[in-house]
Write a sequence for this structure.
């Protein structure tokens, strides 16, 4: 039996991350029913930072060189602060299934950021597949919201941009620091800053919540905010940022499935049709060539 190629292994790790991420919005939706969005969005990063400190200490990881701290801060702004907070704010007013559809824009933004930041050059076929999948999601979003945008919609778009920046920067740093080390250091860098808004929010709103809300908060803290990044960053490092990022076109429909299963949100025929189109785009994107710049492998 031939050993799996780095691309196949990268796609496997990426899929593990996507499965965990797909439950993030349903869990957030349950948590914000009782807890303030700041506590849910930023508090879960503080909890994850505690786990990160334990893991880094237990494995005696060296402190990253100074040249990597800017990148770690950028990754933290994207996936430790931006996406969790903005998605929590959106989930106060929107169904998690709807939010899951909007997050299908992440692969396109990830590819764009990768092109700028690490000089990946996706082929025209790859871009066509990404754009087709993205347009499908945008059409679905427009039909579902009757064309009217609210603050919650804008928060979701901001969350998408934040996630793309964090994913690309984290994958870039994974080549030098290690995949799971990146999210751990990003969490620790952000923790002192996050303590202030979380502490203020706790003082204003308290921590009284149902067991379901606390359970959802615990899931969001341990899996989407921590363990899933171990698999996700490692997958993008092995298989390429743009190509593995394509897997997130599947995530909206996994989120829809879990939203229907766990939260009893309706799943319409339109959702199923869009899912089929998007999954086809993922298959096409996997077969498309992505040129990885040799200069992106330099440590400078």
């Amino acid at each position: 039996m031939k050993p799996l190629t780095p691309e196949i292994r990268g796609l496997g790790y990426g899929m593990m991350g996507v499965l965990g991420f797909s439950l993030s919005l349903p869990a957030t939706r349950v948590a914000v029913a009782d807890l303030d969005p700041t506590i849910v969005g930023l508090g879960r990063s503080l909890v994850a930072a505690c786990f990160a400190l334990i893991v880094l200490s237990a494995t005696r990881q060296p402190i990253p060189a100074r040249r990597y701290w800017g990148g770690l801060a950028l990754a933290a702004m994207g996936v430790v602060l931006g996406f969790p907070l903005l998605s929590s704010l959106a989930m106060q007013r929107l169904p998690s299934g709807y939010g899951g559809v909007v997050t299908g824009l992440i692969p396109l933004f990830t590819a764009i950021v990768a092109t700028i930041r690490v000089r990946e050059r996706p082929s025209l076929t790859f871009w066509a597949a990404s754009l087709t999948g993205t347009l499908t999601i945008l059409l679905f979003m427009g039909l579902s919201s009757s064309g009217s945008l609210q603050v919650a919609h804008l928060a979701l778009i901001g969350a998408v941009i934040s996630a793309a920046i964090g994913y690309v920067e984290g994958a870039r740093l994974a080549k030098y620091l290690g995949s799971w080390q990146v999210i751990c250091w990003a969490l620790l860098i952000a923790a002192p800053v996050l303590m202030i808004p979380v502490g203020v929010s706790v003082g204003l709103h308290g921590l009284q919540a149902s067991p379901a809300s606390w359970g959802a908060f615990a899931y969001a803290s341990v899996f989407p905010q921590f363990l899933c990044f171990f698999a996700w960053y490692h997958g993008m490092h092995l298989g390429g940022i743009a190509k593995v990022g394509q897997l997130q076109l599947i995530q909206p429909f996994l989120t829809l499935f879990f939203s229907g299963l766990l939260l009893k949100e309706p799943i319409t025929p339109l959702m199923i049709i869009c899912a089929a189109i998007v999954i086809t785009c993922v298959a096409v994107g996997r077969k498309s060539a992505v040129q990885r710049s040799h200069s992106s492998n330099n440590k400078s």
Notes: The radius of gyration is 18 Å. The longest strand covers residues 120-122.
